[in-house]
Amino acid sequence: MAFKKWQRSPSKKAPHRSWTQDEMKIIGWCLSKNIGVGISPDWKGDMKWQIEISINGKIHTDPNRYDNDNVYDKVNEYYKYYYDKYNK
Which of 55, 49, 46, 54 shows the shortest CA–CA distance to 74? Predict the structure, then answer.
């Protein structure tokens, strides 16, 4: 009896970042208003990250791709943008 050897699916660990208190306040406000920003690997390219923005269940994908070093800076920039835009 022969066994088929299964190939592992590709994986990539997300970069790590510590958030400040002010950033957490902005992120918490956005999440309470159903605004979420997340990252996912871009398997087509050279292993960069893509950013997905979810607003009230509608998902929008940023057309740019980001390195490990600057992906969370851009995520923070998106959260700050929506916080400033809708927090009146």
Answer: 49
CA distance 23 to 76: 7
Identify the pLDDT of residue 82.
96
What would the pLDDT profile of 19-73 be if each residue is shown by its tens digit?
Answer: 999 999 999 999 999 999 999 988 887 789 999 999 999 999 999 999 988 999 9
Distance (Å) of CA 80 to CA 10, 40, 45, 88? 32, 20, 28, 13
The Cα-based distances of 38 to 13, 27, 53 in angstroms read 14, 11, 6
Q: Output the six-digit token pair for 69.
A: 């070093």
Amino acid at residue number 10: P
